[in-house]
Amino acid sequence: MATQKMLKFVSTPREMPEKRSAAERSEDFHEIYREFARAKAAEQASRCSQCGVPYCQSHCPLHNNIPDWLRLTAEGRLYEAWQVSQATSTLPEICGRICPQDRLCEGNCVIEQSGHGTVTIGAIEKYINDVAWEEGWITAVQPGQERAESIGIIGAGPGGLSAAHMLRARGFQVTVYDRYDRAGGLMTYGIPGFKLEKDVVLRRNQWLADSGVEFVLNCAVGEDISFDAIRGKHDAVLIATGVYKTRDLDIDNADAGGVVRAIDYLTASNKVDFGDEVPDFADGELDAKGKRVVVIGGGDTAMDCVRTAIRQGALSVKCLYRRDRANMPGSQREVQNAEEEGVEFVWMSAPGKFIGHVTGDFAASQEADVDGPVRTVSQIASVSIQKMRLGAPDVTGRQAPELIEGADYDEPADLVIKALGFEPEDLPRLWGVEGLEVTRWGTIKANFQTHQTSLPGVFAVGDIVRGASLVVWAIRDGREAAESIAGYLTGEARIAAE
Ligand code: FAD
Ligand code: SF4
Ligand code: SF4
Where, by residue number, does the polypeptide cross the bilayer (predicted)? Predict the structure, then answer.
């Protein structure tokens, strides 16, 4: 009986693939987990109890058929396991690496709930799909029939790429526009290599190109080409531009030299990892080497910044967060990895002000311009830190941080990285588009199921609709939107334009 190989969770302890030592991995930007060996993947998959109502599956945004591919892996039937895995996911090797599994599939595994330790679903998903690539099972999409209709997709992140894949598979002509020089969105330029090696993303990009998806890179819509021109060229348009406006701090010296945005810092680091020339890194501005680094924020972006700074050779790395460990939004797994690598977390702390020291430019400006205005050029020297405590829960049940008067102190810093979250840019204004409705948060208003916006034939997915979210949700949106667009173009489904 098939399930004889399963239900081993009582006798077999949970194991993740081997993690490289903190000392070794802190020296490079390679992924920190090694691959499962075939026998280990089968052993770990066999821990699954094949639940009749699999909570892992219902808490996976893609509703991946997890119990089936675990059973097939346990039985050594990897080709079939891969077929089941890729049937519901466009980028399974990427989700297996970077989904916050502790909050999604694994966090809801019944074995985890019963205290035996979750089935290592993400690591097995990664394993199955890495084997598929190695074995050459993943070949270019060959649509059964070519169609004349074309779709313009703005944004080559996971939302746009997932839609491109599904539409191309149906034979549509797909063009993806992106302002960056490489496709992949935040998978390429946001998320560091130690979580997601860049070859894994570039391989997918190439596969899409081999499948007939056209990429128009270095092309910023609204600057290099107008949104109306894209609408004029294509029968339908998908907006998948993500969110990039950084939330800021309203404190003294907020613009001091050495205070940088997380997205600029991480993008520069990823570009250097590709071997690109990055002037702001070469001149030291976005390089943490030898510096006392303070990162502000408690989300996954902050975790990526602190761990990048360690790898760049920072003198010290501190992470300020205004709540405690239990109440931080970032993944606990990532906090543990960061601590192992030498990051110090300063919980219940917020920046009160930045203290700068005047640089040489100040003296120069005085000499050159004796009677003119004095230029106050300052470089970060320290962060004045305010200590907090958790107060009464607010309406959402979350305890709000409150200031502890008189407990401030100064923390010396040479580089401060702001990782306070992202907001949408004002696309209707930037692109000069009338009638493209947005929500009060500035995200694009789109129908939850069809992803149609207020403009006929224009759809939107991913972070630009949800606000800053996850790769797996962008993939789901992209897949759903592809279905709607196909219906819209072929008349197979009637989609309301409102
Ligand atoms: P994006 O990935 O942002 O892609 C949007 C694309 O649109 C970009 O390539 C951009 O260049 C392009 N674009 C924007 N404007 C224009 C324009 N005007 N013209 C042309 N092109 C344009 N999620 C996880 O699940 N796991 C993680 O570990 C994780 N880590 C993260 C780490 C960081 C540092 C950040 C910032 C995010 C992380 N996320 C993570 C979130 C995840 O990356 C996003 O939710 C996801 O990438 C959103 O996908 P998207 O397709 O909507 O947008
Ligand atoms: Fe888990 Fe993410 Fe894979 Fe779904 S896509 S099974 S949530 S790792
Ligand atoms: Fe297997 Fe856990 Fe999913 Fe149940 S919840 S099917 S034990 S992985």
Answer: none
